[in-house]
Every structure is written in structure tokens, then in C-alpha cells.
């Protein structure tokens, strides 16, 4: 490299792989595949192919479908040659079925699905689905699709989805549901999810949004008896309708993150007793809005009422806003 100009191919393999991993996977594969033997070898390198994001990036925060030309080339020429190296896939609805049907993916363990309609997702989980084997072998699943509406038909559909999801994906250890509510209880009792539906003996980490504190308490009632990490966002925390044994210790839980969307007046009656059951926590994160409480939640309160019950705690992050609605006027 005597010249003052350094070309891309002058860089060592390790540096090229680092560069490729910071760019769009689709763009990199489409650009370097078939150029020369060295770039073909790097495109097959496990450091690059083990995790593939096969969506087209539209902006920093948005993703869109790739063009038909690129998708055709990807499915016809590229994926068939690297399918056995892929351990993680990130796909979107319009191209998902074609990508997953290219070949068997014997080593895939993680699947991320974005913006998939409920009616389509249930088809992928059906017995005659051509991609059912993928869902049976994955251990990590991230989806943003399932949502409850105020209609019986939608609630019934989502009940079927969760029934099928936990029936098919029996190897799941990590499940993340973005932006939609996982509800084990419904205002329509006939569509409430029974214990045997929403349960798993392999789940270790669960990330979900739920509607009420009762939904959260049900997730901690033993149906996920191996769960160690729970990250949960709750719309509203009101008085629980469940008969909960506050002496039952959640011994497996080592990390808990709780976020509330709306102010709650049940901090002392519901949240504090729940946290005291987590005596083996190593990480605790609380993002709360607490309303109508005459005393602010300060470090003394947190230490004496909560942290003293967690002798193994190593990390505590919190943002707690205490709202006093009572204004005294002299």
C-alpha cells in the first residue's frame, strides 16, 4: 500500500467484516456477492452470516420491504449457499414466507418478525404451514403483531394465536412481544386464557406489554416456572381482583423491570408486596407514576420497604414520580 489511496480490498478481512456488520445486510449481500472470490468468501463467513437482518432500511427508525429484484436474487442465489450458517433471522411480512421456504435452516435459533397481521401469523403456526418447522426449533422469538381490540372476533383470534404459539414453540426460552398486549385475562370471560394455554416450562426471559396488574400477576403464578427475567409494561395498576398469596416467594426471578403507563394509587397495596416476594433479584428497574400519595417515595422508603428484602441485588435503576393530588390552602 505505497499509494496514498487505500482501496476497500486493501483492508484485512477482520476490518471488512466489521464494516459489513455495520451496514445493511441486504445491501452488503446484494453488492458483494459474485464480485470476486475473496468477497464471496467473506459473504459466507460465519461472523457475518450467523445473524442476518433481511429487511430494507428506509430511515433510522423505519424499515420497509425490499425490492422484488433483490428478493429474487437473495432467495435464488445467496441464501441457498449460506442457509446452514444462519442462527438468527430478522424478517418482515412481505418477504418472510419466501425467505423461510428457501431451504431448511438447521441452525436457526432466533427469529424476529415485524408488523405481522394476526390472521397471517396464525397461518404460519398451523399444521400445514410450510415454515412450521422453523417455529418448532427456535429458542428466541421477537414479534410485534398480536393486539387485542374490543371485538369478540379479534379476542377469539388472539386466544387461538397464543394457544398455538405455546403449543408449537416448545423450545422457546426468550419471548419478546413489542408494542402489543399479552392478555391472560379478558373483560369477556369466555375468552380469558386458561393456565394451560399461556404457560411454558422452558421460558427464561419474557418481555411483554399487558393491560392490568392482574395480567402481570398471572404471569408470575407458576405458569412460567423457569422464568428468570421479566420485563413488563402495564397500562394501569388498580386494585387486584385476584387472591394472591403475598408470602409466596418468586425464587427463580433474578431480573425484573416494571414500567407503568398511567399513574397508580395502588403502589403500597400492590407493587410493594409484589417486590418483596422477589428476594433473589440481582437487577431491578422501576419506572413508575404514583398518584395520590401524601409522602414522596425517597431513598429511605426504597431502602427500608423494598431493597432490604433483596439481599442479592446488584443493580437498581429507577425513575419514580410521586404525584400528590391533595393541595392544602391556608
From TrEMBL:
Residues 5-52 form the F-box domain. InterPro entries: F-box-like_dom_sf (IPR036047), F-box_dom (IPR001810), LRR_dom_sf (IPR032675). This is F-box domain-containing protein. Pfam families: F-box. It comes from Rotaria magnacalcarata. It comes from the Eukaryota. SUPFAM superfamilies: F-box domain. Transmembrane segments: none annotated.
Amino acid at each position: 500500500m505505497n499509494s496514498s489511496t487505500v482501496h476497500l480490498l486493501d483492508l484485512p478481512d477482520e476490518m471488512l467484516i466489521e464494516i459489513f456488520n455495520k451496514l445493511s445486510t441486504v445491501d452488503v449481500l446484494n453488492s458483494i456477492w459474485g464480485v470476486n472470490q475473496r468477497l464471496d468468501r467473506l459473504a459466507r463467513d460465519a461472523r457475518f452470516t450467523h445473524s442476518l437482518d433481511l429487511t430494507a432500511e428506509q430511515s433510522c427508525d423505519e424499515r420497509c420491504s425490499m425490492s422484488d429484484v433483490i428478493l429474487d436474487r437473495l432467495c435464488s442465489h445467496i441464501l441457498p449457499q449460506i442457509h446452514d450458517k444462519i442462527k438468527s433471522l430478522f424478517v418482515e411480512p412481505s418477504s418472510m414466507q419466501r425467505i423461510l421456504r428457501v431451504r431448511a435452516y438447521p441452525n436457526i435459533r432466533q427469529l424476529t418478525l415485524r408488523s405481522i397481521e394476526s390472521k397471517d401469523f396464525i397461518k404460519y403456526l398451523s399444521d400445514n404451514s410450510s415454515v412450521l418447522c422453523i417455529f418448532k426449533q427456535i429458542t428466541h422469538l421477537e414479534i410485534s403483531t398480536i393486539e387485542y381490540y374490543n371485538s369478540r372476533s379479534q379476542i377469539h383470534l388472539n386466544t387461538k394465536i397464543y394457544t398455538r404459539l405455546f403449543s408449537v414453540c416448545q423450545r422457546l426460552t426468550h419471548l419478546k412481544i413489542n408494542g402489543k398486549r399479552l392478555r391472560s385475562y379478558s373483560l369477556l370471560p369466555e375468552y380469558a386464557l386458561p393456565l394451560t394455554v399461556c404457560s411454558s416450562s422452558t421460558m427464561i426471559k419474557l418481555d411483554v406489554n399487558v393491560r392490568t396488574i392482574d395480567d402481570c400477576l398471572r404471569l408470575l403464578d407458576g405458569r412460567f416456572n423457569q422464568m428468570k427475567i421479566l420485563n413488563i409494561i402495564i397500562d394501569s395498576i388498580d386494585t387486584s381482583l385476584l387472591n394472591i398469596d403475598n408470602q409466596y416467594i418468586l425464587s427463580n426471578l433474578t431480573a425484573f423491570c416494571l414500567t407503568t403507563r398511567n399513574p397508580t394509587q395502588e403502589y403500597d397495596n400492590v407493587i410493594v408486596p409484589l417486590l418483596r416476594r422477589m428476594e433473589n433479584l440481582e437487577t431491578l428497574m422501576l419506572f413508575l407514576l404514583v398518584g395520590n400519595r401524601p409522602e414522596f417515595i425517597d431513598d429511605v422508603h426504597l431502602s427500608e420497604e423494598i431493597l432490604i428484602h433483596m439481599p442479592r441485588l446488584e443493580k437498581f435503576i429507577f425513575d419514580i414520580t410521586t404525584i400528590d393530588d391533595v393541595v392544602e390552602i391556608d
